[in-house]
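Title: Prediction job returns without error message
Component: structure pipeline
Severity: low
Priority: P3
Assignee: unassigned

Description:
Job completed but the reporter wants confirmation the result is attached to the right record. Sequence as submitted:
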Amino acid sequence: MADEKVGEGAENGACQTPVVSANKANDWLIFLLRLFAFFATVSATVVMAINKQTLTVVVATIGRTPIQASVTAKFQHTPAFIFFVIANGLASIHNLLMLIVELIGHKFDFKGLRYLLIPILDMLNVALVSGGTSAAVFIGELARNGNSHAKWNKICDKFSTYCKHGGGAMIASSIGLVLMIIVNVISITKLRIQKCQNYSRLP
């Protein structure tokens, strides 16, 4: 019994840190990081979704008369870019909803469910954006350098604006991904802080 009380006292002592102030600091940090992640994923979604470039190229020559045709490059032509737009769009919606929860969630009693559910959803979105960004970067590298072994020609020497905008969208998505990973880590650590906070309230 004595050892058990000592153990409880030690655990209680470990939780005697200023958990309330730590929790508030983490809440504000998560809010700001999630806000920046939201802007990053929204930017990536919009830039890639409107990314489009049309060129007029010579496809044949009859005598001395060139035959020209208009060629358009846009994200709908590549499944990887479609996945990229969907992944970042869903992540943007998730972050927006989580921002709303951060602002008004304290007014509702979730009985601890919010602290467990949010990290799980964050982790799913990290996996989603990671897959979309990786797929887009792979196709972007192929468009920039081609593949001589597979006889795939590069296109960025012709559609330079399209490739620059696509590259910018990938950079924004990568920034959003890193921020969401940090948010996910902090959200998980909040579970420990919340446990200490609830424990410290026990009589």
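Comment from assignee: result matches the submitted record. The mean pLDDT is 79.
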